[in-house]
Amino acid sequence: MADTSHGPASFWTQADALLRKNLTFQKRNIKQNIRLVSFPILLCLLLVLVQTLVNHELDKPENRCGCICIDTDGDGKCEKVCALKYSTLEQGASCPIPDPPQWPPLLQVPAPNHRAVISSVIPYTDLPNESCKRTGSCPVTMLFTGKNQTLGEVLAGNMFRSNFTLNSSDTLDNLASSVSGSESMPENSNFLDPAFYSDLPIYNVQSQCSQNPISSVPINISSIQMQQEVRCVQGLHLWRNSSSEVNSELYKGYKKGNSERKINEILAAYDFSNSNGNNFNVSIWYNSTFKNDTGSGPIALLRLPRLVNLASNAYLEFLQGSGTDMLFEFVKEMPKPESKLRLDFSSLLGTLFFTWVILQLFPVVLTSLVYEKQQKLRIMMKMHGLGDGPYWMISYTYFLTVSSIYMLCFVIFGSLIGLKFFTMNEYSIQFIFYFIYINLQISLAFLVAAMFSDVKTSTVIGYIFVFGSGLLGGFLFQFFVQDTSFPRGWIIVLELYPGFSLYRGLYEFAQYAFNGNYMGTDGMRWGDLSDSNNGMREVFIIMVVEWFLVLLFAYYVDQAVSSGTGKGTFFCLQRFRKKKLSSFKMRSLRRQGSKVSIEMEKPDVGQEREKVEKLLLDSDTTHAVICDNLKKVYSGRDGNPEKFAVRGLSLALSRGECFGMLGPNGAGKTSFINMMIGLTKSTSGTAYVQGLDIQTQMDEIYTSMGVCPQHDLLWETLTGREHLLFYGRLKNLKGSALIQAVEESLKSVNLFYGGVADKQAGKYSGGMKRRLSVAISLIGDPKVVYMDEPSTGLDPASRNNLWNVVKRAKQDRAIILTTHSMEEAEVLCDRLGVFVDGSLQCIGNPKELKARYGGSYVFTMTTSSNHEEEVENLVRRLSPNANKIYYLSGTQKFELPKQEVRIADVFESVENAKQRFTVFAWGLADTTLEDVFIKVALEAQASNVLT
Ligand SMILES: *[C@@H]1O[C@H](CO)[C@@H](O)[C@H](O)[C@H]1NC(C)=O
Ligand SMILES: *[C@@H]1O[C@H](CO)[C@@H](O)[C@H](O)[C@H]1NC(C)=O
Ligand SMILES: *[C@@H]1O[C@H](CO)[C@@H](O)[C@H](O)[C@H]1NC(C)=O
Ligand SMILES: *[C@@H]1O[C@H](CO)[C@@H](O)[C@H](O)[C@H]1NC(C)=O
Ligand SMILES: *[C@@H]1O[C@H](CO)[C@@H](O)[C@H](O)[C@H]1NC(C)=O
């Protein structure tokens, strides 16, 4: 490769590489992206559909203000006139009311069979007898108390008149000046008191009723003539000694169980307390329960002012004498314009739907992060030099952009189709709210992603979060918000959960939009944020603070997890544990270590150690890799002893050397590689790569390192060329040098021709993926390359192909290769080490090893089983020190020391033997590497068992 002078890639080069890769990746995922964006659009459309249907239903002519055709300007043609008087009661709701009707103020009078009478719970004998309930003629009771009973009696007496008859020509004034009331319930719209259009009578409360208490009088309200029944009812005023007595009596009026007869309702109660001639002080008890199901409190107040007026009138009369009166003439509602009956569905249903829409981004970000982790792509990128800074910056910005586009589509589309939820509220508040929330959500996804390593689990958790938060918000949290008696502090605590703070924000938008639409006012404006009922301000504060905290915490956890010491447990915890263990461990290690070197170290391994020590003293930098007594110990868990994965490895590799590592499974090869590529930290000792220490300078080492992991770590949807371009950029290749390097690389692994380079990696065969992995490990001219079983699972042709690549590549770099294939080791490696049970058993080039450990031929012969002994005799004759290493039903294998036998003798003896008995097959072989390997491994294991 041409360019060898490039240094490590800068922050921005790395960021650029990652960004380009992500964009390509997204381009491939276009279908999924379209599905994602279409979700809110579909929801909005659904809302609009429902809304149109509902409004169509509400806006039917029979619900519109009643109209009639009359000739108003006298030109003989009739004009359409719409007014309340042409409307039914239902239509009236939408009529303009420029001049609302007025009606006399009323009291809330208990229904006849609810009025208080003597009963077992209320033993006061001054109450009326229960028998009046049968005739429906019970009086209404009013209680009063105070410091001065004389004064109280006077005031109470002033309240009602006796023998008062209605003047039928001016009923309304008469009703206003006498004390009137109704048992009907006030309603939501207050343009007329229901008392005047329900069938219930109007009660005229007097201290004594005349003979004929019931009369029917004409009433004119807003030019509508009505006949109204007015019924006289006796008002009883009873003195009680203290306000606590009043309290207990009122309390006993509430019904218990289902018995209607037990209800004892009292009109009202007055406490005149310390009132006297100079001073008027009154408290009034009234029944605040009587509000209709719409539930808004102030409606009950409609029947309240008259109670106050009654008391002040009585006091005025006490001061000034009878005849003085403070007339409370009428009650009327504010004028109202013509209104259309329309419900804004987007605001009613919107909160839940929109919560889902926005939360839906969470699993998307989460799974995408966990995918890179599960496929180990993150660590792969890191090993090829991608720093954490660029990774975080680009990933974060990238998800922020995706989320912002999503939200933008959502808001713009919602506004275009006219959802009040969006159009009524100030856009700047909405944008800031959504912006802060998506940032919080992304940070949260980063944090949660650190705890999962499986895409499926994280997807499930993500969607449970989405639907759970939405439903809990809609069916639990919202009730807390609406319930004014629920402590506000607890709501803020609940809002610390991001799903609820989102819900609260959307809920506020919906409320403002709904009310604004209904009342014809504005939606939420910045000024409304200072309103104490508006929860938006707290939501903003909570979300901003959480955003920063979660982001910091996520970065911290990510660092802890990716520093490799373990999964899931936290950094500080681990550090603490390590510290506690290490001092103790070092001692035991040292003992163990010395034993190993004295008793078991082979001369070749010892030589390598001396070489390393010398190199370190000379501070030599010509060697690519120098391992200095590298050790890895896994601490014992659950009472198991500590596991020594690597027990002091010393090794020096020069440039241009390929070192093969052989060893049985579990020998510690992978632990060694993991330490070298920075996945785990060594327990003690260190290694220098290009003169850089793996303990402290791993980030610099990454820029000149290539890794071909045991399993292919590739993006399914990226092509081979895109993989190489990405990793090439990470290695700081640019422009034409990059293109050239990628092309050469593709050609060298035979992926260039036939359009293979531009096929997605997911569609590659196993061999192609393997070759691509090797190409990735070699791109950008790394000085040290680690290959973990590079040819596993390849057919012989592909394998040869791959070997050629590696052979070519080893010219000017050090390669460390682990393999189980002796053939591969022999073809590729300049030196081999057999690694058993955590330490090197031997080291040397393949020929040397064979000579050293071989030194014998292997003689095999197969006969029928009754000739076995003759074969053995034959061998003994050839070589007295022969060693039987294997036998099974007629097949026997012997090891013949080379110095004892001549090959010609062997052939001769076999020819002779063939004449005496049938030989099915026979063979004589020189020792193979495989024999060396097995021998070394067995020896090492045997000596380990002994020690
Ligand atoms: C009670 O009120 C009456 C009427 O105002 C007054 O004459 C009387 O002195 C008051 N009694 C006391 C103890 O204040
Ligand atoms: C009723 O009121 C009208 C006007 O206020 C008055 O002229 C008339 O005398 C009254 N009739 C009775 C019976 O009080
Ligand atoms: C209220 O006080 C009066 C005078 O002190 C007393 O006679 C009467 O029994 C008391 N009533 C009750 C219900 O305690
Ligand atoms: C208050 O009004 C409600 C509704 O009319 C009624 O059910 C309840 O019994 C009343 N309570 C009292 C103490 O009068
Ligand atoms: C509330 O008002 C409606 C009419 O708007 C009426 O039908 C209903 O009976 C009222 N509820 C009660 C508890 O009186």
UniProtKB/TrEMBL annotation:
Keywords: ATP-binding, Membrane, Nucleotide-binding, Transmembrane, Transmembrane helix. SMART domains: AAA. Its main location: membrane. GO terms for molecular function: ABC-type transporter activity; ATP binding; ATP hydrolysis activity; lipid transporter activity. It comes from the Eukaryota. The chain crosses the membrane at residues 36-54, 348-371, 391-419, 431-453, 460-481, 539-557. It is found in: Membrane. It is a multi-pass membrane protein. Residues 625-862 form the ABC transporter domain. InterPro entries: AAA+_ATPase, ABC2_TM, ABC_transporter-like_ATP-bd, ABC_transporter-like_CS, ABCA, P-loop_NTPase. GO terms for cellular component: membrane. Belongs to the ABC transporter superfamily. ABCA family. CPR flippase (TC 3.A.1.211) subfamily. This is ABC transporter domain-containing protein. It comes from Prunus dulcis (Almond).
